[in-house]
């Protein structure tokens, strides 16, 4: 049987209360007593089980998802998955809440994060565009001993926070390989569309995409990224102008997670069946568009897996365990009409 705290107390020649203070880093323990307990830990091979301690104390884990306030179908899917996870983990003494923030205002996001304290929340999963303000606010959460997970889109130079999501460089390279093969190598132009190029996931996807196109398909020309900012009116205007000025566009890559507005804007000008179109994330709209051949490929990640993974990682960090890397790896799914 594994040694218990009572075994430690007996081996170290101290009280059970002293062992408890040492294990939980509480004050009022002499240096000599702490040394005896630590030596007994090494000698007996004692492994602390924070999960069991928290269960015994009836401790409730408090996690929060910080998600964009404005969005389309993929955001609704994420909210649905968070709600499903909330119901599932209640029996494990875990509470989950959602805070929605204006994704285009980094100062407002930073203010929302600044209001979170260790008395209110144990862990936060944050989906936000890359910015110095948000990155610094996340770093301050970590300083306040709140566990932070970068959710789907990360921040540069924030290695202390875990990341949940696909490898976006690989996802972009996958899109590049698919479009290059579908077009047969060119020559042709490719329209690239994003909600915003402030988002780290869009930046990484664009870099992966350009890398494979430049290396393997030099006759293809990816055009500068169009930013819709999630505005359908703006999307229709800029996409119309680009297609009218570049009639030799033969493919479209939608970097961001919402394909509905870009595809409707394309349909105003061109028949999407005449184009090779690759988008990200499976939503009711993108699934129907794939079925009727208005798009050719969806590059997806399982939203339920990402939500559950973020929760497991925050809990593991609180319990001083290393997350299981293979379990938390989010896979890139390539969906065609034929394999839906």
Quick structural overview:
The chain is of the alpha/beta class and 340 residues long. 46% of the residues lie in helices and 17% in strands. Helix 8 packs across helix 9 (200-216).
Describe what this molecule looks like in 3D:
The protein is an alpha/beta fold and 340 residues long. The chain has 3 domains: 44 residues, 434 Repressor (Amino-terminal Domain); 133 residues, 3-Layer(aba) Sandwich (Rossmann fold), CATH 3.40.50; 133 residues, Response regulator (Rossmann fold, 3-Layer(aba) Sandwich). It contains 14 helices and 12 strands. Strands 6, 7, 8, 9, 10, 11 and 12 form a 7-stranded mixed β-sheet that branches. A 5-stranded parallel β-sheet has the order 2-1-3-4-5, with helices on both faces. Helix 11 links the parallel strand 9 and strand 10. Helix 1 packs across helix 2, helix 6 runs parallel beside helix 7 and helix 10 crosses helix 11.
Helix content: 40-55%
Beta strands, count = 12
> Which structural class fits the helix and strand makeup?
alpha/beta
Series of H and E elements: HHHHEHEHEHEEHEHEEHEHEHEHHE
Essential attributes:
single chain; 340 residues; alpha/beta; 434 Repressor (Amino-terminal Domain); Rossmann fold; 3 domains; 7-stranded mixed β-sheet; 5-stranded parallel β-sheet; elongated
